[in-house]
């Protein structure tokens, strides 16, 4: 990702007087044009990087400028390493590991043991239980498209099952709730959209079709769910049986549980009403009952009845031998 690459370039320039753009491009597997865009970004952040022409030329810090190597404390560097290792659980790249090694190299030997302890305290694992290998090719292709500003094409199936062909300008990868999304400008809709990677098929680069990055709306909130049912339920009241208290604690936390009659427990939450909410409540099975609102209670009851009918009317399947 771009942030890790920028940090890597800065650290390389701290340790080397000059480096060629082609060497950086080969190392990070991007185009030379992308490297020069990175240099512009670093310059805009207040670190004066200049290019020197000629046979022995390259990229280096401006003469007379010295960047304080202690601009980041060991605690701050440890936070970066922890973040990189956590990101790598779902978005693993060789650049992440190289950057971790470079950060380790700038820590003084006398502080190495303490630094390693700080970076081993927390690991946030973003990867799904079934692994992220099936999404890795899509992530790599989209990452390449974002870096090179190349259009992508794909077939998309939305939350309602409608299938369409899309061509879009990829701008950002987003990981939310263990699900990957692509924020892109859709040429068909002529607006920014969020596409769930699991719903994208036949993803490909539109070679030689580049675009100029747009500024996405600053006020646009993250909308990972369908906009068809975007209204907020005033308050969802769920009742859990005593034997399912552990489920309520796992999903909502002990502080959210309110005692009710018959050794039951109540949870009161506000949610957007959409397919996610219906599926989430149904996933809790018979251990939970929707008390309010009444229309949500009826929706869940109807869907539960449809599930029961599938098993009551279906022929008993043959057993595996």
Automatic annotation (TrEMBL):
Protein's UniProt keywords contain Transcription regulation: yes
Domain HTH deoR-type residues, every copy: 2-57
Molecular function (Gene Ontology), one example: DNA-binding transcription factor activity
Domain of life: Bacteria
Keywords: Transcription, Transcription regulation
Pfam families noted in UniProt: HTH_11, WCX, WYL
Keyword Transcription regulation tagged: yes
Protein name: YafY family transcriptional regulator
Source lineage: Bacteria, Bacillati, Bacillota, Bacilli, Bacillales
């Amino acid at each position: 990702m771009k942030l890790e690459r920028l940090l890597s370039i800065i650290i390389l320039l701290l340790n080397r007087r000059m480096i060629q753009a082609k060497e950086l491009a080969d190392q990070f597997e991007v185009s030379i044009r992308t490297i020069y865009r990175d240099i512009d970004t670093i310059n805009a952040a207040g670190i004066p990087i200049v290019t020197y022409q000629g046979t022995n030329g390259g990229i280096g810090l401006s003469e007379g400028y010295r960047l304080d190597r202690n601009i980041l404390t060991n605690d701050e560097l440890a936070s970066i390493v922890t973040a990189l290792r956590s990101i790598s659980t779902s978005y693993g790249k060789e650049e992440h590991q190289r950057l971790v090694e470079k950060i380790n190299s700038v820590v003084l030997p006398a502080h190495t043991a303490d630094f390693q302890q700080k970076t081993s305290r927390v690991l946030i694992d973003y990867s799904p239980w079934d692994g992220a290998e099936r999404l890795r090719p899509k992530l790599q292709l989209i990452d390449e498209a974002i870096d090179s500003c190349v259009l992508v094409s794909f077939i998309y199936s939305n939350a309602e099952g409608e299938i369409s062909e899309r061509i879009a300008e990829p701008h950002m990868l987003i990981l939310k709730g263990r699900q990957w999304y692509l924020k892109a400008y859709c040429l068909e809709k002529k607006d920014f959209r969020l596409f769930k990677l699991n719903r994208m098929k036949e993803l490909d680069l539109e070679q030689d079709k580049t675009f100029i990055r747009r500024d996405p709306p600053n006020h646009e909130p993250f909308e990972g769910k369908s906009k068809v049912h975007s209204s907020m339920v005033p308050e969802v009241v769920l009742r859990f049986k005593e034997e399912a208290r552990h489920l309520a604690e796992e999903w909502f936390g002990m502080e959210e549980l309110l005692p009710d009659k018959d050794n039951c427990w109540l949870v009161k939450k506000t949610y957007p009403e959409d397919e996610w909410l219906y599926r989430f409540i149904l996933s809790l099975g018979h251990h939970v009952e929707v008390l309010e609102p009444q229309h949500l209670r009826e929706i869940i009851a109807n869907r539960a009845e449809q599930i029961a009918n599938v098993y009551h009317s279906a022929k008993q399947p043959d057993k595996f031998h």
